[in-house]
Amino acid sequence: MLMLLIEDDPTIARELSLRWQGRGWQLQWAATLCAARAALAQPGLFDLLLLDLGLPDGNGMDLLAELRRSDPRTPVMVLTARDQVADRVQGLRQGADDYLVKPFAAEELDARVEGLLRRSGQTLGARVSFGDLHWLGDEGRACLGDQTLELSPREFEVLGLLLRRAPRLCPKRVLIEALSERNLEINDSAAEVYISRLRRRLLGSNVTIRTLRGFGYQLTLDDGGTA
Ligand code: CA
Fold it and tell me: How far is the CA of 9 from the centre of ligand 1 (A)?
C-alpha cells in the first residue's frame, strides 16, 4: 500500500511513517498543496490520500475538488483540526470518504484507513465496467459489449486489475505484486506479453491500453470509439 500524506505538521508525518512501516504501508509526505499536486501528477500511484485542510499555501478542500474531477475513486481521508459540523459536511460533499478530527488516536486512524481500503477493494470487486468493456468477476468472464472475450486466466486477472484502477494508472509493480498474491508468478517481460495480448483483444472497441514507459499501464476511453 502506498499512501500520500498531505500535511504540514512534520511530527505527524514522522510518527505515521514510522508507525506504518511495521504494517508494510508506505507513506509519501507532501507538506504543501504544491508538493501534493506534483505527487498527484502521476495518476493512480496512491492507494489512499490523507489530507489536512489548513496548509501553508491554501486549503486542502480545493485540492480535493480538483482531484475528484479526474479521480472519483482513490479514497481520501480528511485529517483536520476543524471540528465544525459544517466543515465536515463540506468535506464529505466534496468527495472525502472519511473525516478524522485532530488530535486523533493513531489506533483510530489505523482502523479507519483499514475500513477505507477494504471498502475500496470491495466496491472495485465483483463487476466493473469501463466503456464497452465489462469485467464480471463473479462469473469469471469479461465482455466487450455483449460479446464474451476469450481470455486465459492470467489475462482475465490482468484485465481486472487494470479495470479496477481505470482511468487511473496501474503501476507495473502493482500488477506484478497483485498477480503474485494470487499465486500467478509473472515477471516483467511476461507482464508485457499479457498486456500486448489484451491490447489485441480490445482492438475495435472504445477502450485502449496505454503504456506509460517506466510507470505502468492505463485504460483509456476513446471518444471516437464505438460507444
Ligand atoms: Ca495544517
Answer: 6
C-alpha cell at 160: 481486472
The answer on pLDDT for 145 being more than 60 is yes
Cα–ligand 1 centroid distance for 50 (angstroms): 12
Ligand 1 centre to CA of 165 (Å) is 30
Same domain, 30 and 106: yes
**Which stretches of the chain are assigned E, i.e. beta strand?**
2-6, 26-30, 48-52, 54-55, 58-59, 76-80, 98-101, 127-130, 133-136, 141-144, 147-148, 169-171, 207-212, 216-221
User: Which of 64, 94, 119 corresponds to the end of one domain?
Assistant: 119
User: What is the 142 CA–ligand 1 centroid distance (Å)?
Assistant: 45
CA of 10 to the centre of ligand 1 (A): 10
Instruction: Specify the range with the lowest mean pLDDT, choosing from 33-37, 81-85, 123-127, 213-217.
Output: 123-127
Q: Is 165 exposed, middle or buried (0-12, 13-18, 19+ CB in 10 A)?
A: buried
**Residue 209 reports pLDDT greater than 60:** yes
